[in-house]
Structures are given as structure tokens and as C-alpha cells.
Amino acid sequence: MLKRLILAILPLTLLACEGKKPEPGPETKELTAPQGVKLAGATESTLDFSWTAVAGAESYNWRLTLNATMVANGVTPDNSLSIGGLEKGTTYTFTVRATAGESTSVWSKPLEASTIAPEPEKPSGKTQCVDAPLVLELPGAVKLGNSGRIAIFKKDGTRVDQIDLADLAKVKVRDDGAMVPAAAVGNDAPFHTFMDALPCSGRWRAVHYTPLRIEAGKLIIRPHTGVLEFDTEYYVTVGGSVIEGFTGVAEGEWTFATSSAPASAASLRVAADGSGDFCTVQRALDYADKGGAVISIAPGTYSEMLFAREKSGITLKGDSREGVRIVYPNNESYETGSGGSISSRPSAGASIGKSGGRGVFLVENCDNLVIQDLTLENSFGELKGQAEAIYFNSGSNQHRMTIENCSLLSYQDTFLCKGVVWVHNSLIAGHCDFVWGYPKACLFEDCEIRSRAAGYIVQARVPSASDKGFVFLNCRLTAENGVKDGSMYLARSAGQANCFDNVVYVGCTMGPVINAGGWLENPKPNPASPTATSGWREYGSVTPSGSSASAGRNGSGLVISAAEAEAYSSRQAVLGW
Questions:
Q1: Which of 100, 116, 179, 548 is least surrounded by CB atoms within 10 angstroms?
Q2: Distance between CA 449 and CA 437 in Å, rounded?
Q3: In contact, 299 and 324? CB cutoff 8 Å
Q4: Domain 426-577: assigned CATH number
Q5: Which CATH class is domain 38-114?
Q6: How far apart are CA 557 and CA 540, in angstroms?
Q7: For the segment 427-459, what is each residue's pLDDT rounded down to a tens digit?
Q8: Which CA distances in Å does 539 have to 256, 506, 507?
């Protein structure tokens, strides 16, 4: 019996050693990330989202961020959600994940969504300068589309101008907002609406320009030069796809009128704020009397290229050298060649016929032009490529130009001239051939010639051996900080037998940036052996401390005598006036 009892107990003991097996729990399901997340609706302050329901999900975690910063988050049992209290015209990022008990899915793919900005207030009924920009206030974030048109019509419905956003693909936008050609504009380039034609004396200069800018929530529209008339009523239309998130501006919603013509074409005032006769320098140049005019320019930055042709006695006078800046980026890679004018305004799609050139200011056949008290800058800004600030093209090589108390700034080819030129008390800055051209006589007197990098100051292509060419009288040759000593040459030659390297420095103070040899000898200049009247010469060159700077010059240049230097000792001696 004891044996039977032991046997009866043993199975119970064995069962106790195995332990109790757990009851089976619910099956764990892997949750997938929500799919089909979309913006279901938007107002100025709310965003509505929806997504496809996830199998097995009990609820959904969501979050809304702005520039990677959490704005709102929460949990919803439904596969849709409305989030309020948001900023108008603002783009947010939304993402959501499924949850069930302690299980969660990964987050959905982020979705960008924007609240609606209010429709812009149409600035109707204003009277403004004939060349003033058109400004549309756009609260909130603003971004250009890539299609649609902006058009300007006369009151009677005649279209006078158009900017087609399809042409935006033909330009690239610099960091400063300027729109420049994506490919160089040559003579056969087709004209499009992101190009302009600057009129003067019945001819035009074809150039690239910036028709649209976005600044501080404003769309700034610059009509093509010369298309608007004085004392005329217009309306503007803006296509619905021009600005992302806006429905556009329909006919009659935005109207304006232009002001009356100036009382005199001989005395004109330019002011960017609209308080003068014109808002742009170019429209004033075109309007100015051919027989002579003074164009005064109020302080400000004028982002434009210029064209003047066949006008005598024009004076461009800024209110101050530092306060009046005419600035634009241009370069050989944007518009090829030194440039010239054409006989008619190109139509859309037609060949421009002649590139307007790589300079900021193109002057053709103007006599007695005076530029005073302002800054003219080619803001291309890179240490490569030809980029003139001004090209004074005197067809007869007898026309005169005076530049007084100005700053002319670029890098390569800053100053290009023909004719007879006096530059006085001014700054010319650059690094490679930044004074060059074909002058009969060009005198820089009491000027600062500033090197911005290693290179060469002058490349002369003077037409005749007897012409004075480039003369520097009592000038200071300086350098920007960081430019290596000895890295700048006084001149280099074009290596051409049909022109002459006539360059003279008289009484100039030459900083340590000037190479001890003075002149770059490869290629050899013309003439290879200078004389008192032709070739590379200098007299009275000194260092900033007053010691002689001409010791150690190479044989391509000549140190002339005091008597020989008399021919270059004054404006009258050099220019004859």
C-alpha cells in the first residue's frame, strides 16, 4: 500500500517541477505607416489632413512642424484631422503614425502644406513715374511660379507690355536677386521677355534685365524700358500661376496712371522714390535734350544698365559720390563683346542682331559727356571674365568725356574708352587690364588706381604712334588688403602690330603692389623700344615714402626726362582743353 501511495504522488511531483504553462495571449500585429496622407483643405489659419486607415490601428499620433520646430502635436482616433490657430501664408510639415496598445508604426512620409495667404490688395488708382516699378503687396511667404503672364494694357485694352514666366527658365537668379542669362547672349540670340531694349536717339541696346523681384513680401515688377507713355491710364493683369498660392489679378482690379512729361528736357531729376521727373537714369538719358542737359540724381542704388547715343553736352551729376550708385552685374559670360546698338526694338523670338555688350554703361557717339559725383559699378564680382563699368565708344575718336569725383568699380576691363577723356579725382578699381582701349588721349589726373588682385593696370591699343594714349598724372597706385606685393604690372601689351602701347606715368606714387620690373614684357609692346613720345614711359615715380620707384625697371619701359615729361604735365598739354 505504501508503494502504491508513492507511485500516486510521483506524477503530481513531476507536474509541479514542469511549472504551469502560460495562457496564450492576443496575437501581436505589426502596424504599417499611414499611406495616402494628403491636405484635405486649408484656410488662412487652419490645415485639414486625411489619410488611409491602417488595419489594426486604435489611434494615430500626429505632429506639425515649422522649420524643424514643433508647432503642434497630439492623438486622434480618426484618420482625419483639422489643425487651427496657424499663421496665414505659411508652409508647415505634417506627419502621422498608427498606434495600437504599445505598438506603433513608423512615421509617414512628411507632407508640406501651406495655409492660404490673403489675396493681395490691388494698388489701384495711383499716379506714378512713367518708369516706376509696379509693386504688389503679398502678405506671407511668396514664391514665383514657372508659368503665366504679367501684362500691362492701356485703358482701351491695347497691350503694351508682357512678362512671360515661361522665360524664367532662360535665366538664373543670383544671390542678390538679379536675373542673368543662363547662356551667353550673342548676336544671334532670340529676344525674350526677360530681356530689355534700352532706347536712346532712335536706337536700342539689347540687354538682359531683372523684370521681377520679391522683396519683403512684395512682388516688384519692372516694365520694359520706354513702353509706357506720359499721362496715360493703364491696367495690369497677373496670371493665376505667376505666384504660388494666389489666384492672380484680373482685368480692372489693378489700375494706375503715369505722370506728366517734365517741363524741360534740359534739366531733369532722377529719384528712385518717385519724387523726381524719372525713377531711372536710363529713361532720363533717353528723354534728355540732344543739345545738352543736366540730369541730377538723388541718393540711392539704381540697379540698371545704361545706354546713351548721339547726344552732346549731357551731364550726369549725382548728389554724392558714395550716395548715388548705379550698379548691375554683367560679364562676357552674360553678354558677349563690348557691345553696340541696333536700329529697332526686337520682337519676341527674333534675333537681337547685336549684343548690347558686357558693360554697365554703353556710350555711343556722344560728345562732351560729363559724369560727376557718383559710383558706377559692374557687380559681376568674380576674378575672371571681362566686365566693364563703362565703354565710351567715340566713333570719330574726337568726342570728349569728363569723369569727375567718381568711383568706377569692377575687376577685369573696368574702364574702356576711345576718344579724348579726362578722369579727375576719381577711383578706378580692378585687377586685369582694368584700364584699356583705343583713345586718342585719356588723362587720369589726381586719381587712385586700386588693384583688387594680381594683374595688369593698362592694356593700350592706341590707333596712332603720335597719339598721347593713356596718361596718369599725379595718381596714387594702391591695392586692397591682401593683394600680394609686386603682383601688379603697370601695363601689358595686346601684342598687335596695328596699334601702339602708349602709356605714360608722370609724378605718380606707386605702392608696393607694383612689380619692380614695372612692365610685363611678354608679349613685347609696340614699339618694343620706347621713345620719348611712344611706348611705355614714366617720370618722377616715387614710393609712398618718397624714394624713387623706377629703379630696376626692365628694358620695355623708358624713364623720360623732365623736359620730355612736360608734354604730359597738365590737362591742357595732354588734351588741349
A1: 548
A2: 16
A3: yes
A4: 2.160.20.10
A5: mainly beta
A6: 14
A7: 999 999 999 999 999 999 999 999 999 999 999
A8: 62, 5, 6
